[in-house]
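Predict the 3D structure for this chain.
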Amino acid sequence: MDVKLGKKSDSPVFKQILDMIPRSLLRKAIRKYKSDKSCSAYFTNDELVSMMFGQLNKCLSLREIAMGIDQSPEFLADIGLEQSPAKSTMSDGNAKRDYRVFEELYYLLCGYYKDQLRMREDYKVIKEIEGKHIKIIDATIMSVCLSLFEWAVYRTAKGGMKAHVSLDEASMIPDIINITEAKLSDRRGVDDFRYPKDTIVVDDRGYYDTV
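Done. Predicted structure below.
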């Protein structure tokens, strides 16, 4: 499948983005985590579409997502939804569905598009390290609401979580992501990162352990 955004199409851009997710990969992730088991409404696909819409349109609440999706019957049909999900429906789905189904889908997509992502016109191979894998690791802290993330205590009356990320230099996308409480050190956040032989890891001094 080769979907190119910007190509003349009668479909909304959001629909074109959704079309880049092979249904077979989504079904594989759903089967692995049984995320649609005993589900009669707001299936995994519905949650994926809703959350992607909210992210891409910078919605600040579930209410904004619901209102944004509910544009017209034609738009709902284009993105594969029978109706715009209610705020309470999305809230229940987010609370009850195993988040790992979307994590699994992300890694499946990374593998599926790996070769295409590495075929960048501006990509130049450094002769001295040709044939080696290059990974860039770093971490970033994101503020969160303590009333929603009680485990993420960071400072007095402030919540935070930290994303420890390994970026693949060839594809320029994260291939390992570890989410922890913000208090965890950068060094400890990558303890479980594993790389194949002949990998060069680029990091800063926050990852040096002299003990």
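Residues 123-207 form one domain.
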